[in-house]
Structure formats: structure tokens, C-alpha cells
Amino acid sequence: MEYGDLPEGVREDVRPFGVSIADEELARMKALLSLSRIPSTCYENSLPNGSRALGLRQEWLVNYRKKHEQIINSFPKFKTTARNCTFHTTEIHFMALFSKKKAATPVLLLHGWPGSVLEFIPLLTLLRQKYPDPAHLPYHLIVPSLPGFGFSEAFPVGNDYGVPHVANIMADLMDDVLGFKDYVVQGGDIGSRIGRILAATDPNCAAALLNYSPIPQPPGMSRDDLTDDEKAGLDRGNWFRGDGCAYALTQATRPATVGLVLSTNPLALLAWVGEKYLDWVDPASFRPRSVLQGSGTAYSRELMEEILLSVSLYWLTNTAHTSLYSYRECFAISGPTRSAHHYEEWHIAAPKKLGFSYFPKEVAPTPRAWIATSGNLVYWKEHAKGGHFAALEQPVSILEDLEEFVTSCVGRD
Question: Is-catalytic flag, 388?
């Protein structure tokens, strides 16, 4: 497959991988959907004017439950094993676009929850269109499924692993398995935490371009000094913490229960995950130009297809329960939290470089001055639209930022 030729220095156990879902698993999913009962309307799930103030609407679940595609097969895919700091190995799946240029910059693209490698398909598509010849592609793009997500192996049952262990696995993937030096990492959500740790601790990671970095108000800084847009961003963060993060506290304190529920019924998984996409994207990213209707409420057909494809991947790979582990670190209500973004040991100090892509409808937009306290901030780009799933919502913007950041900060083009 084009862009699938491994560069020199890649470890021998990296092997091509193809997605092939067994027919019986597809049949099982369809059977469960057909047997699952959708509850009747009530006050909470049918508020006037299409409101989702009290959660997902019943009409949405009625209309959007029957779509599955396998677009992931159009890109080169591989599997290999990588080690964490305890020297345990985990089988990792990754998509890639490999360049044939010797001076190509390695770029690691990291997803979060409830996302997956599917978030980066629009960006990879743009790159294939812009550089139709692998000999001209300036980058090696590596898009792994995080451990416990998609086609990557989950952590062993008898061990308590978290995001720092994932960062070690990603470092081993880039450093030892693929043999890359001076790579750049880009990510949001969980991927931003992993990316920050990599930039702070891995000698082979030169820079991190993030689009999510929730940081408490630093000492000595006032909200009065912020722009109106930054103040609006903080208000959105307050909404999320007060009205939108009950799911996170549940996944942090009762992940076993949540995992069991989500893994037993695809309709429950669709409701749980679908709500996050509806609430966290910028409506401007998925305008209802082509719509499906339900009780007078319009939704974007494109966004619905993205949700259904993402949920199908979680369901068919049986990873709804194995992908929740990071929440115990950053949303725990007792004991120390490890959000990574405001811990001194993960400060991205010079000569390492930090870049940031600011999107106004992120769930917790953070002011520039606050982010600058967390690292050597050398690149900042503020966008007019976009939300939590930036690579999926605004792939053109993320690609432009990435190319500018690599060119100006790593010195390659």
C-alpha cells in the first residue's frame, strides 16, 4: 500500500495489519440492536426546543443507531509490541503514512476518549491529497491506538497502569521500535497529557503541539487581564466542570460498573458516547446542511455518521471497558490527581518546545498566559471555530498549525 513502506531502522517485528471484523460479530451487534428497547419519552429526555440540558434526547437515540463503516482500511496499518517502564510489553496497533524522504520529520498523533485513530483520518486524507507522492511527503505520520483502545492490546488484568505508562509505551514505539529521533507529538484530550509527558521526559521528543491543556489559574494571574474570548472560554470550562463532567467522575470512581454497562449493549454505548460528541463539538464544525429530523430537531448527518463509526469501533473491538483507565488519574475525588498539565515534572522546558492550537468550543479552553506557565511556549494559534475533537472537526486548521510548527520549531520542511 502507498505510504506503507517502512523506513530504515524499523524493528523487524513491525508487521502489516488489516481490519477484518468477523461476520458473527456484526450479526451479534445487529441482533442486540434489534432486541434493545428504547425507553419512552419523558420530561427529562424530551425538553422543548431540542434542549439537551438534562442529557441525551430520546428522539436522537431513535433515529441514529444503524450505521457502520470500515474506512480505516484505506490507510496502511501495522502491529508491533512496545514496552512500558516496568518492561511489560503491549501489542500496539497504529496507522501510518511513511515518507520516502530521509529527512522526513516523525510526527506522533495521539487521540483521547471517547475518540480513536478515526479522529485523524480527515487529516491523513488531506496529507495524501497534498503530497500524492510518498517521496515528497515531509513527515512520517504515526497514529497509534492507545493501549485498551481499538485494535491495541489492553493492559494486563493484574496491574494498575495509567497515562505515564502509556507515555513510556509511546516513547518506546517511536524510539526503539521505529527508530525515530527528534519527533514531534500532537494531541488533544488524553493525547495531550501523553504528549506533554513525552516532550518533558523523552530525549527523542523535540516538541509538542497540543490543543487541550486544562490548567488551574496560576498564582499571581488575574482573570481581569484576559481577553473577552479567553473569559468566554473560562465560562465554558465552568459549564463543563459544573454541568458536563458527571460522566468523568463516574468513570473515575466506578469505572468497573460503567465498563460493564457499556460493554453489554451497543445502544447504551451509543447513548453514552454520542452525548459527548453532541456536547463537545463546535456546532459550526458540523452544520446541519444535510439533516435527519426527529420531532422537529435537526442534527448534522456528517456528525451522526462520525459518532456511529466511532461507537462501532469501540463495540466491535470490545474496548468500551478497557479504555476508561485514565479518568482515575485526573478526576479522582480523593487522593492526588495526575492531570499532567500543571505538574512541575512534566513542564516542557527549553530547549524542548511547546505549541498550542486554541479552539473556542473546547470543553475547557485555557488562556494563553496560563498555558505559558507550563512550558516553553513558542507557538500559539487561535482559531475562530472548533471544539474538543479538533483533528476531526477542523483538520485543515490542525494540519496548517502542524506544518507551521514543524517548520518553525524543528527546522524542517
Answer: yes
